[in-house]
Design a protein that fits this description.
alpha/beta, 10-stranded mixed sheet, two-stranded antiparallel ribbon, 37% helix
Length: 312
C-alpha cells in the first residue's frame, strides 16, 4: 500500500493538535481540505483514525497505533527532500525579539556555522508558523511555552539583564540594584505587556506595580523615552550596546540577577545538514564564553530548565 504523504502529514498534525482548525492552520489549508485528506486516508486504510463527538476529537485505537510510525514517515520524507538540496542550499535562519538584538549572539557563531540566509520574522508566533510551513530552517530568540507541536529547541545562552534608566532617576547613582528596589518605579515596555513574556514575568516576580507602554520604533527611540521620564526604567541584556542617548544609564541587577534565555528553534525532522553545524557552533561558543552559567541561588530565570540550563 502506497500512502499519500500529504494525507499522512494531515493525520499527524491533527493527532498532535486534536483540533481540525489548528491543524489546518499549521498546514496552511482550509479545514474542509484537511477533513478530505483525513477521510481519504481512513478510506485507504479501511479504518477510522479519529473519533469525533461532543467532547472534541480523539484518536481511535488504530489512530494511536498509527501515530508513531506516521511521524517517522513524515520525518523521513522531510529528510529525503532536504537531502536533494545537499550542502548547496544555505540554512534559512530567522530571529525574533529584535529590540534585544538577537543578531549580536548569532553573529558570534555565524562564521563557524556555514552559509546562512536571514529571514524577517518579528515575533515568536510568526517565526513558529514559518518553521512549520518550511519557509525557514531554524530560528533564534527567547522561547517560551506554549510552543506548537513539531518544534524542537535548545538553550544557547543565558544573558544577564541590566536596568536602564534616566540619569535623573533616584536610583541612577547606584553601582548595582536589586530588582525589588525598582518596585516604586515604572517599567516602560516596548509594546503590550501581555505580549512580552519576559517582562511580564519580571513584573509578577518582583512586584512592579506600575508599567507604561510605548510603540516599538527601535531601540534609540524607546530608550529616549525612558531617559525623558525620571521614574521610568526598562530592562536590556547586558551585552546590548546602548545607542547615543543623552541622560541614560545602565545599572547591573543583582540578588538575584535576571537572565534572558536565548534558544535555537527548529522543526523536528528537518534534515538540513547546516542545522547540526549551527547547533555545534552555538555549543562551542557557549563553552568558550561561559554562556550557560546558572546558579539558582544567585540568578533568576522565569522558567529554570529541568535538569539544568543545557537541558532545554
Amino acid at each position: 500500500m502506497d500512502l499519500d504523504m500529504a494525507r499522512v502529514r494531515a493525520f499527524v498534525h491533527t493527532a498532535e493538535e486534536l483540533h481540525f482548525g489548528r491543524a489546518a492552520g499549521r498546514l496552511a489549508i482550509s479545514q474542509q481540505a484537511l477533513s478530505k485528506r483525513i477521510a481519504r486516508l481512513e478510506s485507504q486504510l479501511g479504518t477510522e483514525l479519529f473519533r469525533r463527538g461532543g467532547n472534541g476529537v480523539h484518536l481511535t485505537d488504530a489512530g494511536q497505533r498509527f501515530l508513531a510510525p506516521a511521524r517517522q514517515a513524515v520525518d523521513a520524507a522531510d529528510i529525503a527532500v532536504a537531502a536533494v538540496f545537499g550542502d548547496d542550499r544555505p540554512l534559512r535562519v530567522d530571529v525574533w525579539g529584535h529590540l534585544y538584538a538577537p543578531m549580536r549572539t548569532l553573529a558570534q557563531v555565524a562564521a563557524h556555522a556555514g552559509e546562512l540566509v536571514l529571514g524577517h520574522g518579528r515575533e515568536l508566533p510568526s517565526v513558529t508558523t514559518a518553521l512549520l510551513h518550511g519557509d525557514i530552517d531554524a530560528a533564534f530568540g527567547r522561547v517560551h511555552p506554549p510552543l506548537p507541536s513539531g518544534l524542537a529547541h535548545r538553550l544557547v545562552r543565558l544573558e544577564p539583564v541590566d536596568a536602564v534608566l534616566s540619569t535623573d532617576h533616584p536610583l541612577a547613582a547606584a553601582s548595582a540594584l536589586r530588582p525589588e528596589q525598582l518596585r516604586g518605579s515604572v517599567l516602560r515596555t516596548p509594546g503590550a505587556l501581555d505580549r512580552l513574556d519576559f517582562l511580564h514575568r519580571f513584573v509578577d516576580r518582583f512586584g512592579i506595580a506600575n508599567t507604561a507602554t510605548s510603540v516599538n520604533l527601535g531601540l534609540a527611540h524607546f530608550l529616549a523615552e525612558v531617559a525623558a521620564e525620571p521614574r521610568h526604567f526598562s530592562l536590556l541584556p547586558a551585552d546590548v550596546s546602548l545607542p547615543d542617548v543623552p541622560g541614560l544609564r545602565s545599572v547591573p541587577l543583582v540578588e538575584p540577577t535576571p537572565l534572558y534565555a536565548w534558544s535555537l528553534l527548529w522543526r523536528s525532522g528537518n534534515g538540513h545538514p547546516g542545522l547540526n553545524g549551527l547547533a555545534a557552533a552555538c555549543a562551542e561558543q557557549a563553552g568558550r564564553s561561559r554562556w550557560l552559567e546558572y546558579d539558582p541561588a544567585r540568578d533568576w530565570l522565569p522558567e529554570p530548565p529541568a535538569g539544568g540550563p543545557g537541558a532545554e
